[in-house]
Amino acid sequence: MAGLLPLCAAAVLLLLLAAGGAIPPPEEAARMARFVLHSCDWGALATLSAQEGLRGRPFANIFSLSDGPPGPFRGSGVPYLYLTDMEISVQDLEINSNASLTVSLAQTPYCKKHRYDPQNPLCAHIIFCGSIVKVNDSEAGLAKKALFSRHPEMESWPKDHNWFFAKFNITNIWVLDYFGGLKIVTPEEYYSVKP
Questions:
Q1: Are 56 and 139 in contact (CB under 8 A)?
Q2: What band does 73 get if pLDDT is binned at 50, 70 and 90?
Q3: Residue 139 φ/ψ, nearest 5 degrees
Q4: pLDDT at 74
């Protein structure tokens, strides 16, 4: 049964992407940012490395994420992550919590269907800058529901790894979804729109 959840999420996304007008138009950059984040199950998180031999250099790593359960209008816009201090990037974040997070429709069927290369601006991607913070007890339930609904395997990850829920605290947003360069969206604009 647990294996069906990711398939159901993928089916819902396929239906959303296949529906006419499902993807926001290029002039609605804030909505596009919300749409792309909610459509993605993972992203590339870049930190400043604290590791020996790499100290101070950019270091990117893939992380599963979720802003809410699959389905239209279910995303909060907050990228939640499930982390452990044993992970290299998390060790970087303990020294400097600043990071950037990139998500792209390249991981969805949309770009493949339209034969868009991941670098094609029409294969929208969003770059968030900000910091990673542990969620407080009142937000842990939301983070757990958001993540475990999309990544049910997480519930069985080793307890002795001391997993914790975190969120990406967004300070800057760049949207590349059309020709002509990046669009800047403020966090206020981003959180105020309906995805």
A1: no
A2: confident
A3: -100, -10
A4: 85
CA distance 181 to 26: 11
DSSP H or E segment with residue 140: helix 137-150
77 contacts 67 by C-beta, under 8 angstroms: yes
Structural domains of the chain ordered from first start: 25-192 (2.30.110.10)
Structure tokens at 54: 């790499």
Q: What is the largest CA-CA distance in the chain?
A: 50
Q: Give the confidence band of 72 by pLDDT, cuts at 50, 70, 90.
A: confident
| 21 Rama sector, left if φ>0, alpha if ψ -120 to 50, beta otherwise | left
Q: What is the pLDDT of residues 105-144, one digit of tens each?
A: 999 999 999 999 999 999 999 999 999 999 999 999 999 9
Contact, 59 vs 100, CB < 8 A? no
